[in-house]
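Narrative of activities, Objective 1.

The group set out to show that a structural description can be obtained from nothing but a protein's sequence at a throughput compatible with the screening campaign. Below is one input-output pair from the validation batch, recorded exactly as produced.
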Amino acid sequence: MNPLIIGNKSARVPIIQGGMGVGVSLSGLAGAVAKAGGVGVISAAQIGFDEPDFQSDCPTANLRALRRHIAMAKAQADGGLVGVNIMVATKEYANHVRAACEAGADLIISGAGLPTDLPKLVAGYEESTKIAPIVSTAKAARILLGLWDKHHHRTADCIVIEGPKAGGHLGFTGEQLENFTQEEYDREIQAILKITEEFGKKYGHPIPVIVAGGIFDREDIRHALNLGVDGVQIATRFVVTEECDAAAAFKQAYIDADSSSVEIIKSPVGMPGRAIHNPFLEKLLQGRIPVTRCLGCLSKCNPAQTPYCITQALINAVRGDIKNGLIFCGANVGRLREITTVPKLIAELSW
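Output recorded for this entry:
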């Protein structure tokens, strides 16, 4: 198992812990993963939900919390790599990127839309903060790297390929999620590898490729590495660790789930998402849940029309109100059986 090299940065174990919001992967989980040799990732999504002024001044609360959690994770990481996942779909995207750079994030991973302006936003921090777009198809990879090449004269430091078995928001249509086979997606991964090799040669350095979605055990990691990628991103398995920042009831929902518990939902972000079936999703079948207070988190969300407030639903869940919350998960959540620790999980997955 080779280390993960991203420019001038290195992680001993080629495992990135996926960013999970709201509040599931904060400094506690990210710092522990970084200390154990992987890349720990904080989710910037409404990260200030526990700040006293979150309801009255959401943008300020989020920026303060983001800087604080990066500092706490890096202090815990003992030299390990700490990244931040920042969704393009958020209104404060640019401010979050700049704040992450200023706070010393080693890596910014960005999806939920194409991060076309990300290179411009990290200008001046290229040595200290690396950038990794999330793509799901070769077409998206070609378009994005082409835009970065044309408009910013640079390429990605790393690329995360998020497959159809991932949790949270997915870069596929519902029809694609139904029809993709592993063999077909392996071919998609290999097509993306050819594209990254092309752009890497142009810029004189390799572009590490990370595969995410459905990675559960060593065999999944071996399969991915044998395709030619440099590492994997895992999220669901890190939820059921002692270090995960979510409430105990949230973690227990993962352990209690089986394969029949998982469903594809339509998120207010405009993308399909994978979540655990619960009373909240049952309630949505009866009609929309009116938004009583809009925090302005998403750039394309109309509070008068959205089926529910995704911020409030995710906050309810991470705090342990799993009956009234949205519980995102990966496709393999039904295979989880017990709570473990980050060092034990990293040891189980690596060789």
